[in-house]
Amino acid sequence: MFERKNRILLKELVKTDFKLRYQGSAIGYLWSVLKPLMLFAVMYVVFIYFLRFGADVPHFAVAMLLGMVLWQFFTETTNLGMMSIVGRGDLLRKLSFPTHIIVVAVSINALINLLINLIIVLIFGLINGVDISRYAFLTPLLLIELYAFSLGVAFILATVYVRFRDIGPIWEVLLQVGMYMTPLIYPITLVINVNQTIAKMLMLSPIAQIIQDMRHLLTSPVNLTTWQMIHRNWLVAIPYLLPFVVLIIGFLIFDKNSKKFAETI
Fold it and tell me: How far apart are CA 49 and CA 243, in angstroms?
């Protein structure tokens, strides 16, 4: 449990980061909603209107928007988390507190944006008459899984970035590769039609599993999930367990190196 002073510090860091992010912009906090919507508009025109991706999947436009919002959370948490320790170097040298609070504060900010965007997606989905599953109440469990995975990766990146700033552009490239290897702008059925083995391999990714599960629950049961595509229990369990393994490993790596952060920065 956090001590009271650490909870207060976490709260103040979250508020400060949220204010600084949109400081000086004309429309301020609205960018947290407009950014994914503008990106969605471009991708909708290119991949759905012209290339006809997802024509066999009901409400694929909503499914794509949902996937983009979830991917944006992962990108935001890992990118900002990676740079958070270096960006707060002055604070580390002045105060003594659990260093992981800095990364957690960044992740909570990203989580706030995610929840706002999910409300937009839900409204958009209801307008389009999506087929919400009766098991939609399981959605928070998927959000916990996504948060755990994103925070775990952020811990690892933040640790490495303190010593090796080259990890920044490398991670940017890896995110681009990851986006195209995730059924985000295309349905997984498109991959299945080409090669079922590759499709199953892609669905072992926690991000792909989370996106498809969320789509299955909130847009249409036609969206295939990992447990529908893979019939070996031990394989199916991998993407569901991996986020929590990554979180534990990431925190341990971060905690082991955190005492040297102030002097290294």
Answer: 34
- Ramachandran quadrant class, 97 (left: phi over 0; alpha: psi -120 to 50; beta: rest): beta
* Interacting residues of 194 by C-beta distance below 8 A, sequence separation 6+: none
Tens digit of pLDDT for each residue in 53-91? 777 788 888 899 899 999 999 999 999 999 999 988 777
Question: From the centroid of its chain, how far is CA 129?
Answer: 26
Q: Residue 78: exposed, middle, or buried by beta-carbon count in 10 A (0-12, 13-18, 19+)?
A: buried
- Spatial contact of 70 and 117, defined as CB atoms under 8 Å apart: no
- The 10s digit of each residue's pLDDT in 202-226 is 999 999 999 999 999 999 999 999 9
Nearest-10 crossing angle of helices 206-218, 60-87 = 140
Taking alpha carbons only, the member of 235, 178, 233, 239 closest to residue 206 is 239
Q: Rounded to an integer, what is the distance from CA 92 to the centroid of its chain?
A: 27
Residue 210 near residue 142, CB atoms below 8 Å? yes
- Structure tokens that stand for 185 in this block: 């702008």
